[in-house]
Amino acid sequence: MEELNAESPRFSVSEFIAVTNQTLEYSQENGVLVEGEVFEFKVNQGKWVFFDLKDEEGSISCFMPLWQLRIPLEDGMKVVVKGSAKVTNWGRFSFTVQKIMPVGEGSIKKSFEKLKKKLEKEGLFAADKKRPLPEDLTKIGVISSTSAAGFADFCKIINARWGGLDIKVCHTQVQGLAAPDQIIRALKYLNERGEVQVIAIIRGGGSADDLACFNDEELVRAIASSKIPVITGIGHEVDESLSDLAADIRASTPSNCAEMLSKDRVAESNKVKDLLSHARAGLLQKIDYEKESLANTVIAMNAAVSKHLDALSAKVEDNLQKIRREVFAKLDRAESDLAHNLKIINSLNPDQVLAHGYAILSGKISPGNVVKITTLKQEATAQIKKVKERK
Amino acid sequence: MAEKKTINQKIDELNNSVEWFYGDDFVLEKAPEKYQSAVKLAKDIQKDLDDLKNKIEVIDKDFSKA
Questions:
Q1: Which listed residue, of A70, A78, A90, A333, carries a Cα 20 to 30 Å from A184's Cα?
Q2: A176: which DSSP letter?
């Protein structure tokens, strides 16, 4: 009995439970994380979730409201839960879960596939819901951890490629149980402000556990319902999260995300050079065209002159022929007339008459007169003896 | 004061200048002046491209709190 009277504190049952819970609360001020395997998973009245969390040597009873369960759960899955323990008024030890996330590749994959199927059915990943990146992008919202390597890669690439962008960064955790809610708050913040044209969710590579937060159902829904288009650049090429599927555009990495959101100043510079070359080529082409046009005009002009000259020349030749013909005709006629005249003249030549044996008698024909007789070849004198008239 | 043109606006302007050399409005007498303007615009764009800097601002809000 003496022992019972010692200085040990003395409580009623309910006081003891309250003190125990207070002690537990102090020791788990920010909640604790417990990792284990799910057993005896059940949902009561469509509102409350109960399951045991076990490892090789122990087991705790867990409880949570159904609305806080943001991943598909089933027996055998390995999970990490965040919450706090307390003793119920009936003396049972219970762990109240606030957050839960699968751990280990197998559980993550199982949870991923189940949730993917469910959300796919609801049309959250439908291709026709995807929006393209806005044209003339100048205002970008980024959700990432500013201390993460992925964010540094994003900044490095986007600054090297392009400038003049106004980038608003929401610093959040990008892994762990707290990450989904922080990212959801950042998404809500950027959507409410409406200052950016696109929201990029960025996180560098990591293990399946590190990236598991991007398969959180509420986060996936928040991405799908964002008024502002969302692009994700999470992990590496091979990593696919449900956030990627819900986003409008998926970049394979943070660097790839920066590439997709920015033009390349080198490419733009080359484009400007090409444009200038194109202008030069256009100018030269026009000059060539003008030259050719001028040459064609000269050729056409020459041809016209030549044609005109040919016509004139033909006309001259024609006239010459005509003149020549007329001259020859006249000459022929003159020649003919001349021959005719010559013939007449010849016919009048006394010698022609004499050649026919006639003679010319010159002198007065009267008896006793002496006359001269001329033949073709001789001349003689004779005396007229008698004259009588011819009948 | 006229608002400063963006790079994209300048590139569009350069595009239009280049199209002029291929269009029906082309006049040989105006070509040297037009070409010089295009060269000047291209130099402006190159300078703008070199000078462009991004503004990255981390929003002063704690997203860990609801």
A1: A78
A2: S
The answer to whether residue B4 neighbours chain A at the CB level (below 8 Å) is no
Every domain of chain A and the residues it spans: 9-103, 121-129+137-263, 269-348, 350-383
For the domain A9-103, what is the CATH superfamily, name and number?
Nucleic acid-binding proteins (2.40.50.140)
Q: What per-residue confidence (pLDDT) applies to A187?
A: 98
pLDDT digits (tens, 9 = 90+) for B1-50: 567 888 888 999 999 999 998 888 888 889 889 999 999 999 999 998 88
pTM for this model (two decimals):
0.69
Beta strands in chain A (DSSP E): 32-44, 48-54, 59-65, 78-87, 93-102, 139-144, 166-171, 198-203, 230-234, 249-251, 360-362, 370-374, 379-383
Binary contact (B52, A185; C-beta < 8 A): no
Give chain B's length.
66
Please state the ipTM of this predicted complex: 0.82
Chain B residues with CB under 8 Å of A278 CB are 18, 21
- Among partner residues B14, B21, B64, which is closest to A283 by beta-carbon distance? B21
Mean pLDDT, residues A91-98? 92
**Is some CB atom of chain A closer than 8 A to the CB atom of B28?**
yes
Superfamily for A121-129+137-263?
Succinyl-CoA synthetase domains (3.40.50.261)
CA-based nearest distance A25→chain B, Å: 20
End-to-end Cα spacing for chain A:
228
8 Å CB contact between A62 and A53: yes
